[in-house]
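User: Continuing from earlier, I have the next pair ready.

Assistant: Great, send them over.

User: Here they are, in order.

Assistant: Folding the first of the pair now:
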Amino acid sequence: MATLIKSNLCSPLAALLVAIPATMLVSRAAQAQDDQSTSDTAPPPPPTDLDDSEPPPAEAQPPEQAPDQAAFDQSLSPYGRWIDTPDYGRVWAPNAAANSEWQPYTDGSWVYTDAGWAFASTVPWGWAAFHYGRWAWLENVGWFWVPGFTWAPAWVSWRYTNGHVAWAPYGPRGFKYGPHWHGWIAVPAQHFTHPIAHEMVPRAHVGSVIHGARQAPSIQSSPEHGHAYGPPHGVAGPVHGGAPIHAGAPAHAGTPVHAGGEHGGGEKHH
């Protein structure tokens, strides 16, 4: 008896379900999904000023207080030797200069700041020797650094081509670069921000790059506020922030452009 009652109650529902076309059930389910899939507002585009780059290291920014000679002595002495010279006074030669292939401004990489391209070194003495003073090279000494007390992103002369970026350290006042001076460094433009030691053009081929290059904005006597130094953005690759850089005139010499100011101004000697 119970089985018969249950059968009678279920039969109308079963008959109704059988009567509804399957396509109608599918259509209603699809319509419900469509109603839920559209938001009232469209998703926004990604922000245009998104910058995932790390901030420049402290070394690449002007210090709050300039160092004195005592600070140089304390920081540099463990990594080289101080030498008294008749032309430049007391100078410092890094231990790295014992390697004849070593050059200044190769121990690190370039980072972009509001002052243009700044050198970020990988050596503990780089904060001093790559942001103050000048570099010179003599056959009986090798590379040595002449102290100075004016900070700069890098005391270098810049040049560039469509495929390369090059730079060389400024010499101290009165320095004669000479025909065998080998201070120029060049790297492929697409690798400009990579660790320099891994990207350097072989020294035998640097000359051809330099003689076909154009000058880029370089420090003349001391860094000027609001000026950005180094190659143009389009040559060196995309960067974030900073002031625009304008291309310089074609270069004709193989020595750095004159830089005056404190201890600066090496003579051009072709």
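And the other member of the pair:
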Amino acid sequence: MNNKIIRLSILGFTFAVLLNLFTGCSFRERMVIWAAKPVVEGAIQSLLSETDIELAKTGLESELKLLEGMIVTRPNDRELLELAAQGFTGYTMMFVEDTDQNRARALYERGQKFGMRALSLSISEFMDERLKLDEFNLLIEELEDNDIPAAYWTAAAWASRINLEKSSPKAMMESPRAVNLMQWVLNTDPHFYYSAPLWYFGTYYASLPPMLGGSSAKSNEYFQRALKADGDKFLWGRLLYAKTYAVQVLDQGLFKEQLKQIVSGAENEPEDLRLLNRIASLKAQELLKQSEDLF
């Protein structure tokens, strides 16, 4: 009888130790993050398919703050970092850049930093700000296919921030790095996220003056490739085509044609483009009103 009591006491003590170990703060945090990740990812995907723009805007703001909190707990979680890079870049592009450029710069920088942190999990030197351009380019060559999302959203946020800081010599010196990183994405997967790298370079060459490498011919080449692949779905790309290339070559007919197609909507619209396409439509309507002033 005494032996039985002793065995039960040992079992009880062991269970108590294990219970304390696995209900510790660190373990609870890991379990909460593990359980919450798919919920947050699902929530963001749901918001991207939302057609009520104000509801989506409010929801995205909440999800981005939740993401940041999760990253504090799990700073080396690649999926969370990539999602934050995408989230801050997309949110700023859709809701902030046209109305508050100072805030947009700060938010793009936040997205860029999350993306760089994700890339540094593959190559730690990516976080070294002392790298020379040629050293940075060598790191880019070491990237692999699974780095495409982090590389794209980092480059997109980076380039967008630089575009808002054109008067800053420091920002202009960073530009080749963002462009080269995006070039790697283009070379690796030109149709990533509805041909986003192609839309980017179409915009890039249309936005630069010829003396700095701008070229309407190169711009149109990239835009035509993107239009052929995803122009019927990704209406934001058509918006870029109208705002940059059509304006640069002073083609008012093309400008109006593209904007009217955007307003008409997309055929076979993917769910994850509903929100972006609705916002593109609103912006297209505003640009149509400005047509006579732009040409």
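Worth noting for the second one:
The chain is about 75% helix and 0% strand. The two ends are 98 Å apart (CA to CA).
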